[in-house]
Design goal:
By secondary structure, this protein is α+β, with helices and mostly antiparallel strands. It has 4 helices and 5 strands; from the N terminus they run αααβββββα.
C-alpha cells in the first residue's frame, strides 16, 4: 500500500511540474519595445530658431526675456515641444538682456552633438563629443627615458 501511495504522489508531482513547465513555455514573449524616432539636426536647429524668435517677441512686448514656461503661457508664437528625442530644450538668462537656449542630448551620442545652443544674437554653436581631443603632454622626454 505504501509503495502504491508513493508512486501516486510521485506521479502527481511530475504531472504538476509538467503542467507548470507547459504553462511557462506557452506564455508569449513581450513584443519588442519600439525605439523612439530620432529628430534630425535640421529640426533641432529650426526649433532653436523658433524659441529665439519667441524670446525676441517677448522682449519687445515685456522688456525682458522669459523662461520657457512663461513663453508657453503667453502664447506669442506657436512653440515646438520641450523634448525632441534625444534632445530637450532649456532657456538660460545669464543677464537681464541676454539669453541662451540649449538643446541638450540624452543617452548615447554616437555622431550627434552633445548640445546645440543659440544666443540672443542668433549665434548657433554645437558641442561635439567625438571631436574632443585630450591635451598634449608637456614633458615628452620624461616618457622616453631609459633606466638601464
Amino acid at each position: 500500500m505504501r509503495f502504491r501511495l508513493g508512486i501516486a504522489v510521485l506521479a502527481a508531482v511530475i504531472a504538476y511540474c509538467l503542467f507548470v513547465g507547459w504553462k511557462f513555455a506557452r506564455t508569449p514573449a513581450l513584443p519588442p519595445r519600439p525605439q523612439p524616432q530620432l529628430a534630425d539636426l535640421g529640426t533641432i536647429k529650426a526649433d532653436l530658431f523658433a524659441f529665439a524668435r519667441a524670446e525676441r517677441a517677448y522682449y519687445a512686448a515685456a522688456g525682458r526675456y522669459a523662461p520657457l514656461s512663461e513663453l508657453r503661457s503667453e502664447g506669442l508664437l506657436s512653440l515646438p515641444p520641450d523634448i525632441r528625442w534625444p534632445y530637450f530644450y532649456t532657456i538660460h538668462m545669464p543677464a537681464p538682456n541676454r539669453f541662451v537656449i540649449m538643446a541638450v542630448a540624452e543617452g548615447p551620442f554616437g555622431a550627434r552633438p552633445i548640445a546645440i545652443t543659440i544666443d540672443d544674437d542668433f549665434n548657433m554653436r554645437r558641442f561635439d563629443s567625438h571631436h574632443w581631443r585630450p591635451g598634449r603632454r608637456r614633458n615628452r622626454g620624461a616618457a622616453r627615458q631609459n633606466f638601464s
